[in-house]
Every structure is written in structure tokens, then in C-alpha cells.
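hiii so um. not sure if this is the right channel but i have a protein structure encoded as C-alpha cells and i wanna go backwards to a sequence. like what aa goes where. can anyone help
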């Protein structure tokens, strides 16, 4: 019985993480119908008001509904997360697979580029890029993906170094398959599972990084974001703490949800 408890707890955490992730997706897709108010609707007379029946999570300094801002902010967080993970996974897989398959000079060249990028903290590189290119949704995605592909490339390379020695790859080579066909038809299906797990953790990291950039004023502009809402609430921690508490809980809950989901998937794959 004692040996089964950790597995049960991990399974419960994974289910909870999946439920929160689905709720985030639903909020992002259905935000115009779920939000009780428009995110930019102001009520100056109700500025800094606490939770009430009309505004369950309270209002900010301009009287905007915090719940509506969080629901619309989920759309931005999800767009950034999916965009960063999608771009990073595609670039990282292609480069990592070709480096592991070809070996030699190409493998060494990629590893040196990876080493250089790993020497820079990812958030500092993103801050530098967005400061130069300007704060926007597209620039945030590009800035985070500029280093995000590294983990996918390393993971794919490690998987390909194992897979390329197996019989099905040798058989495909013997039949005249080129590097592109080997990567897309044979190596991709057999390296997809660990990439999915990595993507789950990548979503959490991208959402947290976007919130950090928005907190610093370098995130998407003219749209509600959790990081910007948290930054606005930081000035009113004593008089109106709900302004910072609820965006902070949204960020924390989402990041934990994807981490729990990733942990559960990794454990399940390891057991299989």
C-alpha cells in the first residue's frame, strides 16, 4: 500500500494539472462569452474596490473588472506559450535530428552554438531582444523562442544518437532514404514522446517568462496580460491587495498545472 501512494498522488496531480490546463484553454477560446465585462470597460467610481457580487475579484485602479482581465489575459498567455513551444520544437527537432544523424562537423557546430546560448540566462536574452525590437506579442514570442529551441535540440540529438544505430534506420538507409526522409518518416515518430513531455514543461516556462516580461513593461501592449496586471497591483499591496493576489494566483496555478501535467506524463512514459 505504501508503495502505491506516490503513484496515486502523482496521478491526482496530473489530473488536476490537466483540468486546469483545459480550463485555461477554454477561457482563452471563450473569453468574449465568459468574461462578465469588456476588459477595457472603466468605472472610475469603483476604482480599487474589493470583491463584490458584481465584481467577484474586485476592480483595479481604473475600475476595470479583474476577472474579465484575467480571462482575456489567459488568451495572451496561451498564445505566447503555444507560439514559443511550436517554433522552438520545430527548430530544435530539425537541428537536433540532423546533427545527431549526420554527426561530425555538423554535430560539433550545433553543440557549440548550444553551449553559447546556454551561457546566457534565457530571461535576460529575452529582455534584451524585446528591448531592441519593441514590446509586442510577436516580438515576445520570437525573443523567447530564440533560446527556447536549445532544449529541444539537445533532447532530439540524444534520442537520435540512440535511434540511428537501430535496424530500422539502417534498413531505410539501405533502401536509399536520404536525411530528410529518415528524419521525418522514421526518427520523428520514435522521438515524439519525449518531445511532448518537454513541450509541456516548455509551456509553463513560456507563460512564466511572458508574465515576467509583461511585469517589466516589455510584454504585449494594449491587451490585458497577467504580468501587467500584477505590476499594476504591486503599487497597491497595502490598500488593495486583491489587485496583485489574483493575477499572481493565476500565474502560479497555471505554471504548476503544466508542471504537474509534465511530471505525470514523464512518469507514465518512464513506467511504460
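sure thing!! here u go:
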Amino acid at each position: 500500500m505504501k508503495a502505491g501512494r506516490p503513484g496515486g498522488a502523482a496521478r491526482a496531480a496530473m489530473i488536476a494539472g490537466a483540468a486546469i490546463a483545459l480550463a485555461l484553454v477554454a477561457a482563452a477560446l471563450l473569453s468574449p462569452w465568459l468574461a462578465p465585462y469588456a476588459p477595457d470597460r472603466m468605472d472610475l467610481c469603483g476604482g480599487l474596490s474589493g470583491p463584490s457580487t458584481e465584481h467577484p475579484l474586485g476592480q483595479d485602479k481604473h475600475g476595470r473588472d479583474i476577472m474579465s482581465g484575467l480571462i482575456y489575459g489567459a488568451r495572451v498567455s496561451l498564445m505566447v506559450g503555444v507560439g514559443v513551444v511550436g517554433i522552438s520544437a520545430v527548430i530544435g527537432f530539425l537541428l537536433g535530428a540532423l546533427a545527431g544523424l549526420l554527426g561530425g562537423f555538423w554535430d560539433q557546430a550545433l553543440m557549440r552554438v548550444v553551449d553559447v546560448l546556454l551561457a546566457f540566462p534565457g530571461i535576460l536574452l529575452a529582455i534584451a531582444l524585446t528591448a531592441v525590437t519593441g514590446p509586442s506579442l510577436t516580438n515576445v514570442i520570437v525573443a523567447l523562442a530564440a533560446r527556447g529551441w536549445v532544449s529541444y535540440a539537445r533532447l532530439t540529438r540524444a534520442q537520435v544518437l540512440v535511434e540511428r544505430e537501430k535496424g530500422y534506420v539502417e534498413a531505410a538507409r539501405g533502401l536509399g532514404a536520404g536525411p530528410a526522409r529518415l528524419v521525418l518518416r522514421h526518427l520523428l515518430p520514435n522521438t515524439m514522446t519525449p518531445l511532448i513531455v518537454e513541450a509541456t514543461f516548455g509551456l509553463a516556462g513560456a507563460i512564466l517568462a511572458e508574465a515576467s516580461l509583461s511585469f517589466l513593461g516589455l510584454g504585449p501592449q494594449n491587451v490585458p496580460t497577467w504580468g501587467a496586471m500584477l505590476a499594476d497591483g504591486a503599487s497597491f499591496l497595502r490598500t488593495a491587495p486583491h489587485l496583485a493576489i489574483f493575477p499572481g494566483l493565476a500565474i502560479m496555478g497555471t505554471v504548476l498545472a503544466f508542471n504537474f501535467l509534465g511530471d505525470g506524463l514523464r512518469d507514465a512514459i518512464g513506467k511504460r
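oh and Residues 1-6 have pLDDT under 50 and may be disordered.
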